[in-house]
């Protein structure tokens, strides 16, 4: 996989919690193009959050991150995030790469007004508070919120959707280049999810952001992303252009996942759950991690972990039988027609 | 909302009224009646019966021969005007005795309770930050140990060691006998010296409980997403420790603090006895021993009122310090 102007290059990133051979992010490499929206899809416990956290070197204690995370600044200089000192890291986070967590409801200090969160962030980064708050108001307006009301409210006085949007504004207040979103819509109802998605698209255009959107909700991210990656058992198993990945996916897991996704237009009989469970970090199978659940698995799969190979232009798959998978696992419904997202509005 | 404040305030007075009534009634129920002993004593001394009745009625603001409802109304009327009668054993107006005793007790209770919370909160948050460390484990054990030692044991031991054996501190009283009772440096120093042991023994045992509570609260707060987000936002550690962790961990302890203030006032009955510290508790016990009913009723009433007021303040102010709670809901302290 090649990108022309990568902003973040992740090489061989691995996270371990016992210092041994158990990985919750298993030597992942990925490069993120400046200005793109990258969607990362995976089941619960597939290592999505670890992937997100690693981009800010923010793995929760006592996890240890190894590998190389190269960040290319606007001015052409490059830093290795894992080499930064504490102070440099403190600056890097939020000023260059910022993050929105799952559960906005718990991301604000319950005893501090929303405005206080903005001000203290600006102060901590030695930014001008007056102009920074001006920008915060603009961001909140962009997100269809009433800036004065939101800034003078306590978190509990806002609805979930409003808190989520306020959190997005807070993550953008220092004008970062990259916004990493870890399940930003998980706690919201469907309408709110769609409207936040639309808002994110507008923000991305307006502020020229690079976005990494992490979710378990495949159809949701498919509407937004330029490029998508699928995670299974702590590894990226398929990465590619959105259309390619959905209409022409090469990994049996991706195809099974697409067939398991509910669709209002598809008859219920065509829904196919994936048998079995995804592995826990302590007993990831030898060879291909998906082999025990894969209809195409052979002896080779059980012995040798497939390397990521280029399938098409801008489409890489880690499967020994990617070509066969395309023929043998039929996609039960046509996904080439995009469903139109329910548009905007204030869902609070 | 203002309706809530009116109702809540009205309830304070209703509770105090009920307590005063109960006090009056309970004392009537005591075997022998409140003034039987006194009357017998006075009569033995050869005081004429008519004068005995007059003196007793003067002591209690009631006429002992009047019907019970009449006595009750007289008593309540007098209490409402702040007239608690005259002490039988000390021969002084009860109000005056109490006015002299209350400041000492309030001083000891206030200082020791604040110290107990301050030290407990400090140690508890250190434990939480170093959760699982050797310090944390050792101190958790120590806290439980401290909690299981009653304060009067600490009081007796410290009195024996520091005052009697080593003679560092006075054994009794609120100030030295040769010190003028006026606001001067020697007076303040003497008062501090005398209060040191009572405050120490009343504080030590309570620290453990507060430290464990603070430890638990802090660990819970530290696990919250908003602390993690605050770190990622690059906030200085100090601000996270105070504005995020401490504030959210201490909030739930605020109500407990005000309630404890009230409860600990009654604990001084034992404490002040041990140190012969002439505060409210000391006089309450003295009154009990001497069958000094007017003094007894007054001290009992004061302690109850302090507790009621503590709960009242907690109810009214909690919504001011925790924005999530609005006054008037079902979120009352008690």
Automatic annotation (TrEMBL), chain A:
Keywords from the named record: ATP-binding, Cell membrane, Membrane, Nucleotide-binding, Transport
Domain ABC transporter: 8-258
Alphabetical GO biological process terms: peptide transport
A GO CC annotation given for this chain: plasma membrane
One Pfam family of this chain: oligo_HPY
InterPro entries linked to this entry: AAA+_ATPase, ABC_Ni/Peptide_Import, ABC_transporter-like_ATP-bd, ABC_transporter-like_CS, Oligopep_ABC_C, P-loop_NTPase
Subcellular location per the Swiss-Prot or TrEMBL entry: Cell membrane
Entry's Gene Ontology molecular function annotations: ATP binding; ATP hydrolysis activity
Membrane topology: Peripheral membrane protein
UniProt keyword annotation of Membrane present: yes
Alphabetical list of SUPFAM superfamilies matching this protein: P-loop containing nucleoside triphosphate hydrolases (SSF52540)
Protein's name according to its UniProt entry: Oligopeptide/dipeptide ABC transporter ATPase
TrEMBL record, chain B:
SUPFAM superfamilies reported for this sequence: MetI-like
Main location: membrane
Compartments in which it is found: Cell membrane; Membrane
Keyword set, alphabetical order: Membrane, Transmembrane, Transmembrane helix, Transport
Transmembrane segments: 12-30, 104-126, 138-163, 249-275, 295-314
Domain of life: Archaea
One Pfam family cited in the UniProt record for this chain: BPD_transp_1
Domain ABC transmembrane type-1: 102-314
GO cellular component: plasma membrane
Gene Ontology biological process: transmembrane transport
Signal sequence coordinates: none
Membrane topology label: Multi-pass membrane protein
Family: Belongs to the binding-protein-dependent transport system permease family.
Protein name per UniProt: ABC-type dipeptide/oligopeptide/nickel transport system, permease component
